[in-house]
Every structure is written in structure tokens, then in C-alpha cells.
Amino acid sequence: MRGRTALVTGAGTGIGRAVALRLVELGADVVGVGRRPERLAETARLAGERFEATPLDVRDRAAAAAFVAGLGRLDLLVNNAGGQFVAPAAGISRRGFDAVADLNLTALAALLQAARAGLTTAGGRVVNLSLSAPDRGIAGLAHSAAARAGIAALTRSLAREWPGVRLFCLAPGTVLTAGVGDELPPEVLARIVATTPLGRDTSLAEVAEWVAALGSGVADAVSGALIELDGGSGLVSAASLTG
Ligand SMILES: NC(=O)c1ccc[n+]([C@@H]2O[C@H](COP(=O)([O-])OP(=O)(O)OC[C@H]3O[C@@H](n4cnc5c(N)ncnc54)[C@H](OP(=O)(O)O)[C@@H]3O)[C@@H](O)[C@H]2O)c1
């Protein structure tokens, strides 16, 4: 990855931090964004000088577009920033639905549009983080499942429209980050892991390695694919987060 520039959204915590650290380790110059400067600063401390942190809300269209355009050539874009809250579909307000759909789909689409020129110049690669089995539905996450199924469709569509750019949709199963711990109680996480065919979670290191591999060019014969890094949990699609 030496000499390549990567942008990682949500680089101050969890998966985004692990991805940023792995890319730096492999020689890339990494730009990390997120809203909380103190979390980004901790990633910067761990990563060293080839990591540059910029506080940015990816939902702020004008700021995000200007920032991405300012990067110029972009070898790898990792759209990792995301989040949701668990609720039965009937109880999700319009504001709540819109916020989750915006963060996890619409803002991501806008960032991709802004990054197109830089990605095209570089013949770059994109990894869009999603959820396992988004197209099969997730009880308790209707808003996020809808947005994440949208990401898979967006990934496929852009793979058809932007032939020089490789796009991947990477869908981890359960990754035991602080972020997922805020969204789901431990007993629900344990139940999801127990019903996974491989009976295990997905580690941060595994997600980071997959992102690095997809970003490195070893999968350059592939574009538009949804890759479920989930121990087979998408095959049983047992996830019901509301009980
Ligand atoms: N952990 C899992 O089991 C799992 C499984 C499948 C998919 N995922 C997805 O993988 C991604 C990372 O998850 P995680 O577990 O690492 O959770 P996390 O630690 O909560 O990561 C979410 C990151 O997104 C950033 N973010 C949120 N809103 C943002 C905004 N408006 N602008 C810029 N950055 C924003 C957050 O930083 P700030 O709050 O500082 O902005 C945070 O760094 C998420 O999209 C998540 O849904 C996670």
C-alpha cells in the first residue's frame, strides 16, 4: 500500500480505527474522519505520522464534498461511518428513520459522488461497510437494513457506471466493538453469535485484513460484490434484535 492514499470514515473507533491502523501498517497514507476529534486523536497517536485526522460530519454534504475534492487522487475509500438504534419498525419516527437512512446510505452516496474524480484518476477502490444479510431483513433494524440493502445496490450500480473503479460491499457479522455494545445488550449479541453456523464472531483484525486485501488490488477481477464476513450468519438470517 506504500504511496497510496486512503480515506477511512469513522476512523476514531472500532472497525474504522482497526482498518486505519492496518492500512498504515501496510504503508498507506491514511486520512481519517469522524465527528469526535478526541477519538481521532487516539487513532493518530496509535498510527503515527502517516495518519492524518480531520474532524468531519459525513452528513454535512457541503463540508464532506469540499473535503473529499481537496484530497485529489484517492486510491481507496473506506465508507465505514455508520450506526443505528434498535427499535421495532412501527416505533421508528420519521426523524429517526431519516437519520439512519441518511448516515448509512444517502450521505455515503454523496461522499462517493464527491470522490468519483479522485477515484477515477487513481483507478481506485471502494469498500462500503454494510450489515450481514441486509437483503433478508433484520427484525429490530428495519431502517438500517433498508439502508444497508441500498448500499449493496448502490455498490453494484456504481460498479456498472464507473468501470475503472472497483467497488465492494463488505458485510461483517457480529464484531464485538464498543459501538455494537452500545446498540445491543450482551445477551442478544451472545444469542446472535450462538446461532451463527461457525458459532463465532468476526474479529476486528479480520475485518481490517479484508478491507486491506480488497484495497490492495488482489481482488481486482471483482467489482460490485457483496461479501458477507459473518461466519455464515446470513445463511440462517436468525437475527431478531427485538426478541
Ligand atoms: N460491530 C459490528 O458488529 C458491525 C457489524 C456489521 C457492520 N458494522 C458497521 O461497521 C461500521 C463501524 O462499526 P463499529 O462497530 O466500529 O461502531 P462504532 O465504533 O460506533 O463506529 C462508528 C463510527 O462512525 C463514526 N460516525 C458516526 N456518525 C458519523 C458522522 N455523521 N460523520 C462522521 N463519522 C460518523 C463514529 O465516530 P463519531 O461518533 O466520532 O463521528 C464512529 O467512529 C458501522 O457502519 C457499523 O454499522 C458493525
Overall tally of structural domains: 1
Number of strands: 7
* Small molecules in complex: NADP nicotinamide-adenine-dinucleotide phosphate
- Helical fraction: 40-55%
Distance, first to last CA: 44 Å
Major pleated sheet: 7 strands, parallel
Which regions have little confidence, pLDDT < 50, spanning 5+ residues? Answer: none
Strand coverage percent: 15-25%
Task: Decide which structural class fits the backbone.
Answer: alpha/beta
What CATH architecture do you see? Answer: 3-Layer(aba) Sandwich
| CATH class category label | Alpha Beta
What's the overall geometry?
A: globular
Number of helices: 9
Mean pLDDT: 95
Explain this structure.
By secondary structure, the protein is α/β, with parallel strands linked by helices. The chain has a single domain (5-235), classed as Rossmann fold, CATH 3.40.50. Helices cover 47% and strands 15% of the residues. The chain contains nine helices and seven strands. It has helices at residues 14-25, 37-47, 61-71, 94-122, 142-161, 178-183, 186-194, 204-216, 233-236, and strands spanning 5-9, 29-34, 51-55, 76-79, 125-129, 166-172, 225-229. A seven-stranded parallel beta sheet has the order 3-2-1-4-5-6-7, with helices on both faces. Helix 4 links the parallel strand 4 (76-79) and strand 5 (125-129). Helix 1 runs parallel beside helix 2 (37-47), helix 3 packs parallel to helix 4 and helix 4 runs parallel beside helix 5. It is globular, with a radius of gyration of 17 Å. The N and C termini lie far apart (44 Å). The mean pLDDT is 95. The protein binds NADP nicotinamide-adenine-dinucleotide phosphate (NAP).
